[in-house]
Amino acid sequence: MTRLLVRLFLPRGWNTLSLIRGFYLITPSGLLRLFAIGSDLFFTFDPLEKAQRTLFLADKRLSAAQRLFVEGDSGRAVVTATKAEQYLELALIKGRDADVKGTDAAGFFETLFKASLTHRQMLEEMMSRAPEDGKPILNKTLDSPKKVNEQVSHFLNERGKTLLTPTPTN
Question: What are the residue boundaries of the structural domains of the chain, listed by start?
């Protein structure tokens, strides 16, 4: 029964087994939280609102991963960061859906662009403090915000929007 509920409310493309081993189903309230997140996204009918909520979940997950790193639980932090980046990619997909359906999503894509830069920066900070066994996973996870950043940048350039990219300070 639990696996059925998890599959019903799991975002497309996620592995059920890794979710069960991961952050959500460790505590008894985990299934309830999973149900709340899934139902929140399921009952959101506006495509742009769905994309914004998915981006919010990505940011929330990354903050939780950072907190877990600070507390010293690097194993759960890596899993949570990986899931945060899955939500970031899902936000890009939902944003494209909103754009295809005729919603003006340029503002959302600008926000997503900034969020992908922040996600990348936070993941790089985590990677510098991560134990050796977690670095390959974080390195692979780091590709996700790079990919989202490139795709959003390309999307906005096609629409004639210019992006102000931050210059690195030394």
Answer: 1-43, 45-158
